[in-house]
Every structure is written in structure tokens, then in C-alpha cells.
User: Which sequence fits this backbone?
């Protein structure tokens, strides 16, 4: 007997799973926004229509300023909440025909098709900046953030989707370099500068292993005895392609990219090695080393410093760590704890650029400091500026009352020296006494003054 056997199965779940996989291929799972792949497709479609209708297309790259700090301080759950809230604000700030995408991390892209005039894109950018300045709710508290925006336009800047996105991202980097919380329109020079910056970053990553980093030392002079008491170690970079690169170019780059961590450790180790050599040769001086705000946030910073001191055989009392005032007051309680640990090991501590940040005197008296360094903006021309003179006098008086030494930076004139000496400043450094020079030149020029 013949028969027919029928088999059936429910494929709705399989179809649902397949649909979800296809959805994830073009959308961001966290925010539900289109991803980079779908955004590129939308840009290509928009430029094709704009070419036909003689309109413009704008691409806005939007990045949350200092988003990493949200994750580090409030946790990744709070960071995810913020990303979802930002995506919703962007939807509300744009038209139905616009596309909002999350293309990576905290990087969003907004596509404005059918823009009648280029200036209208700038107005949208300004509206987004204003909308995102309003507080967000994350981790049971109000969170204030800002964003930076880079913008490219079709057909002025590029005609291809990839190039429009790349140029918007380049303009975003320019906005961040110029100062967060604003927008920049792409210009050809931005692309050139970005390429140079990328080359500089690549070179800096290999600078230490290639032996391109060197330390120069600037003397610190006792104003009572006119003898050299110490030196500040300052890093220099001899880049084969560009020659001597100024610190103002590569230090901010190192801070932004995180290279400051390895760079700072190299400086500390090299300075301690040189200090040990000078001490063995009978030169009685101390050396100060700058520690960046990002380095100071390291949980094991004190242990790393002590390890370098042990490995180089340097007495902790010969080393002075310089911190900027702003890096200390950013998290004063943690700073106080870290500085006390340094002091327990015998390392001297100095606050650099004093007077440039809005510090609290209540914290200042709790900080275990050895030195205050008066910022050069107050010292230079102090004899001709009544306000600067008053500030310098006040800082010297404050430091003396707390039992802290005072060093004036940026001294260039004999009049500055006379003023500082008369008001009891302990030490000074600047071009009047000597420029930063390599270690061999330092010993030759200032060895007799030690």
C-alpha cells in the first residue's frame, strides 16, 4: 500500500533569527541606529539624488568629548546609557529625511541630504551642539557633556561616500585639536595637517627605541648664593624627517594618544640615570622631572617611581617630581594620598605653573609640598606690571608662611632677579641664567657653579 508522509515544521523562529542577523549587519545593537556600512550606502544614495537635483549633501561626524572619563568614573553601564540618550537627542535634532548613525564607540554620523545652501548645515551643527549641552541622566545623577563636530559637504569637498566620511572625520579631529565643544568645516589644509599628525604619531611611537629622544637640562639657581642648586629635565625629540621637534608639538599629541605614559617613564628613567652619573662625578645637585596629569592618574605611579629610583641607585631626596596645579586639584583627595606616599619615600614634590588654576587654599595647606613654582606669565616683566608684582609677592608670602620653597620660572631680566631676591624668592630659572642644554653642555657650563 502506498501513502504520502507529510512533514511540517515552524520556520518562524528561524526566519526571525535570520532577519535579526541581517538587521545587525546594518545596525548598531546598542542604539538601534544604522552602522557605518548602512551610512555609506545612504550617503551614496543622497549624493546621487543631489547631483540630479543640483543640491548639497552634508556629513557631520560627532564625537563625545572625554567620553572615556564617563566609562572610567561612572562605569560602562552609565556610558551605554549616555550613548543611547545621545542617539535619541540626535534623532530629535534632525529631520525625518536625515540619517543618524553610530559608526564606532562614541562616534556618531549625521547625514543631511537635500541641503539647499551650505550654510544651513552649519546651523544644524550649532543646534546639535546646543541640544547636547543640556544635562543627561546617567548613574542616578545629572551628567554634563559636550561634543565636537566635523563637517564635509558634497560636492564642494568630495563626491564619494568614503571621502565625505573621511573628510568629516578629519574636520572632527581639527575641532578637537582647536578646542572641544565646537564644529569645524573641512578644508584641504585639515587633511594635510591630519596626515602630518598621523606621521608624527607614528614616529613618536618609535622614537625611544630609535634613540631619537634626548633630555636637556635647565639650571635652577639659588638667588641668595647665585649657585646652581638643581636642574629641570626637559625632553627633546630629534625626528630624522623633521629635525628637532618642539615639545609644544609632540607633548600634546602624546597626551591625547596616551603615549605620554611610556614617554614619561622614559624621561624619568633617563633623568635618574643621568643624575646618578652626575652624583658619582661629585656634582651635588637635584633633578626635577615633570609628571603629566594623565601619568598622575596611574594607580601605581608611586610604585613605578620608587622602582626606577631603586634600579638606577638614586637617593629619593635627589629627585623632585613636578605636577601642574590643575592636575592636582582635579581630584584633590586622591592627589593628597599619592603625594603623601611619595613624601614617605623621600621624594620631593613641586607644584608647577602655580597661580594659573583656580585652586583652593584649604587643599594647598594639606598638600605635602616642598616647592611652589611661580608661572612665568607672572614673572616676566614683573617690574613693570603692578598686578603681576602683587601676585608674585602674595605667592612668595604664602609659600614662606607654609614653609615651602619658591622657584620663579621664566626669568629673563636683571630687574626680575632683583625684584625676586628682594621679596625673598628662593630660586629662579629662565634664559637669564641659561637655556635648556644637553647633559654634557650642562656640566661644562654650570659644573663650576655647583
Assistant:
Amino acid at each position: 500500500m502506498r501513502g504520502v508522509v507529510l512533514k511540517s515544521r515552524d520556520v518562524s523562529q528561524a526566519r526571525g533569527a535570520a532577519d535579526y542577523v541581517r538587521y545587525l549587519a546594518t545596525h548598531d545593537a546598542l542604539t538601534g541606529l544604522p552602522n557605518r556600512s548602512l551610512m555609506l550606502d545612504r550617503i551614496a544614495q543622497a549624493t546621487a539624488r543631489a547631483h540630479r537635483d543640483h543640491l548639497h549633501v552634508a556629513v557631520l561626524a560627532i564625537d563625545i568629548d572625554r567620553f572615556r572619563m564617563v566609562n572610567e568614573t561612572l562605569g560602562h553601564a552609565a556610558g551605554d546609557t549616555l550613548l543611547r540618550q545621545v542617539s535619541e537627542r540626535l534623532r530629535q535634532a534632525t529631520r525625518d529625511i536625515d540619517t543618524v548613525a553610530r559608526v564606532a564607540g562614541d562616534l556618531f554620523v549625521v547625514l543631511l541630504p537635500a541641503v539647499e545652501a551650505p550654510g544651513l548645515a552649519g546651523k544644524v551643527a550649532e543646534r546639535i551642539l546646543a541640544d547636547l549641552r543640556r544635562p543627561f541622566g546617567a548613574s542616578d545623577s545629572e551628567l554634563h557633556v559636550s561634543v565636537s563636530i566635523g563637517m564635509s559637504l558634497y560636492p564642494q569637498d568630495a563626491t564619494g561616500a568614503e571621502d565625505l566620511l573621511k573628510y568629516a572625520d578629519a574636520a572632527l579631529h581639527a575641532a578637537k585639536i582647536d578646542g572641544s565643544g565646537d564644529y569645524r568645516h573641512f578644508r584641504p589644509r585639515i587633511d594635510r595637517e591630519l596626515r602630518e599628525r598621523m606621521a608624527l604619531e607614528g614616529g613618536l611611537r618609535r622614537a625611544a627605541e630609535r634613540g631619537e629622544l634626548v633630555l636637556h637640562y635647565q639650571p635652577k639657581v639659588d638667588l641668595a648664593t647665585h649657585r646652581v642648586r638643581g636642574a629641570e629635565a626637559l625632553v627633546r625629540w630629534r625626528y630624522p624627517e623633521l629635525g628637532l621637534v618642539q615639545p609644544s608639538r609632540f607633548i600634546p599629541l602624546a597626551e591625547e594618544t596616551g603615549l605620554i605614559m611610556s614617554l614619561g617613564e622614559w624621561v624619568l628613567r633617563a633623568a635618574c640615570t643621568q643624575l646618578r652619573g652626575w652624583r658619582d662625578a661629585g656634582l651635588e645637585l637635584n633633578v626635577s622631572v615633570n609628571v603629566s596629569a594623565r601619568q598622575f592618574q596611574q594607580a601605581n605611579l608611586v610604585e613605578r617611581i620608587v622602582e626606577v629610583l631603586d634600579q638606577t641607585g638614586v637617593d629619593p631626596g635627589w629627585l623632585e617630581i613636578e605636577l601642574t596645579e590643575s592636575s592636582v586639584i582635579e581630584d584633590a583627595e586622591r592627589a593628597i594620598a599619592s603625594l603623601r606616599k611619595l613624601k614617605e619615600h623621600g621624594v620631593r614634590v613641586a607644584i608647577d605653573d602655580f597661580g594659573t588654576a583656580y585652586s583652593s587654599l584649604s587643599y594647598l595647606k594639606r598638600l605635602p609640598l616642598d616647592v611652589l613654582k611661580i608661572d612665568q606669565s607672572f614673572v616676566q616683566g614683573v617690574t613693570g606690571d603692578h598686578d603681576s608684582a602683587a601676585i608674585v609677592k602674595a605667592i612668595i608670602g604664602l609659600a614662606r608662611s607654609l614653609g615651602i620653597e619658591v622657584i620663579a620660572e621664566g626669568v629673563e631680566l636683571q630687574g626680575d632677579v632683583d625684584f625676586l631676591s628682594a621679596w625673598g624668592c628662593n630660586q629662579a630659572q629662565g634664559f637669564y641664567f641659561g637655556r635648556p642644554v644637553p647633559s654634557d653642555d650642562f656640566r661644562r657650563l654650570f659644573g663650576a657653579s655647583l
Summary: Residues 260-280 form the longest helix (21 residues). The mean pLDDT is 88. The longest strand covers residues 228-239.
